[in-house]
Amino acid sequence: MIPASIDETAAGLLAHGYVAQRELATAAFLALRLQRPLFLEGEPGTGKTEIAKTLAALLDRPLIRLQCYEGLDLAGAAYEWNYARQMLEIKLGQVSGEDLFARRFLIPRALLQAIDPANPVAPVLLIDELDRADEPFEAFLLEVLSEFQITIPELGVIKALAPPIVIITSNRTREIHDAVKRRCLYHWVDFPSAARELEILRLRVPEAPAALARQIVAFIQGLRALDLYKLPGVAETIEWSRALLELNALQLDPETVQSTLGVLLKYQDDIARVQGSEAARLLAQLKIEAHG
Amino acid sequence: MADTPGAGSPQAGWRPLGGQNATEGRGPEANNHLATNVMHFARVLREAGMPVGTDRVQLSLKALQVAGLESRRDFQATLAACMVDRAEHRPLFEQAFHIFWRDPDLLGRVMAMLLPQAEGKPMRPPPPENRRLAQALFPHAPEAQREPQAQKIEVDAQMSWSERELLQQRDFETMTAEEWAQAQQVLASMRPFFETRPTRRRQSALRGRVDWRASLRAQGRSEAAPLRFQKPRQHVAPLTVLADISGSMSRYSRMLLHLAHGLSNPRERRHAPRVTSFVFGTRLTPITRLLKQRDPDLAVAAVAQRVADWSGGTRLAACLHDFNKHWARRVLSSDATVLLITDGLEQGDAEALAFEARRLRLGCRRLIWLNPLLRFEGFEPRAAGVRALLPEVSLHIPAHNLASLEHLTKLLCN
Questions:
Q1: Contact B259, B185 (CB under 8 A)
Q2: Which pTM was predicted?
């Protein structure tokens, strides 16, 4: 079930619509075989979350997603007691003292669901944008990541029978603590090369004409060379292609680019910079490359 | 070629994989060989400053068994996945990998870096190989020739500024006990820079929202236990210090470094903010890690050694641009306070400066400008740079010595 080699991993990912760089396929393969969490860092929109989804589809396992946010705590991430039910049962006299913290009062959240020994098959656990959670939360993850278990003071230790496949992503808005990283395999997800991006576009937006796809990729690669505050990711490339198709554009021209820049660039300063002369320059460059 | 590094490299086992399929006949011996090499490689990385522990080495060996050794690229990717855990270490790792696992071309170049420069015309500028790495690979090789010391300038250039990049090293006097005590006192009264903000986590309190978990647990013990309450926990907003160390500010740079160090190493950790520090003149240098050293004199000496643009010109706009582009999103959260310490004397493009200052202000919650020039009576914002900065700052206060910092504290407390 788990791929036997790096090639097989890359081929499997490709079959499910994910064009992975060889290095990423290696890291993913190792994470699967060594049962280590995979820690992915990189610019937004480079396919970090997507690989978790693809792996889940590839291995035919359920995907459990924990979206991190500031203030995320145990109750939101791991488990919570069902206080209403506990109160009710106390009132009815059905429970007392010892039984108050039985398993049936426990509401499992993402982390506990992922390591529940009752799972028929170990799921894929995606801990998304860990940099958004506050630092104290990371400390709690340590036990889950290395032992695949959670200690509940009232109940004891709950340990996974088969360790889940853990993917952690971070946009690097802050540095994650070394203790977390130490337990993981690390990979930095870069922007793809032009050839790879074209392949991605062909797979994800098959209806785009080849000539247009080539122009789109060349334009975006040109944008990435500029000194922008936020560079467009692959997600933006795909989104832009879809937008252009919606507008029935057959090739890039200044007006279309002008009116759809908001799909690619999300900062007004960046848009102001690219609009007009810069966009015209990039387009002119495309033409030269196409004809020369 | 393979014998040349013998002097300093690990004696046994320096026989890195030659290209592909070097371990084809994989017996226990070959495996042993690989293990030794991986271990030495990890040691090289460690010497070069990457935190590669023994657990990482073990993990790499396990990973290599799984991933196989058929291709060099996979081999590199495997080692990278196991040994790197920071984006900024990737270039260092790549260089070390290519040198250690036999890339004759690069090995030669690194050797050349360590040997005295041969007379003759260089074909092209030497690659930016890492000196730290070279020393880790060949610790006993003779030191490469030092760059000539920048000439000392005798003229008092303290009130002048220029865009010229002037690189020079600097020594600082160590602190006297009295100074240290005084600094500590001032730092202790620097509370006003610290802004407490509510977090979305909660802690128990006498009144507030009902804490069902605690209440129920209490009631499990005794029927008559009262309800427990909780309220939002407070945390101190993170602080980013951007200190100008150019020529016109050189009088204050020592004080500024001690200030940054004091802020990063508070006596009381509990209510201390997360502090990130940068210094800039003509270029931006992050010094957060250097200031982790608890001894103030050692820390300041480390910074003095690292920073290359002491007392040179100012390129305020360029440095702020660098910060905004590469660091702001990593170190500034929406509730961060930025402490900008500069005289704002920038000759360059005032428009660019205004633009970067606005960007900086949008990225944080408070932008405080400590300005040493403010001590002069009748200071008027006439310089273009000052005028560009002023509309963007939330507070503009004098900071030319410890006493005025104290004054500042009083001011803020009112």
A1: no
A2: 0.75
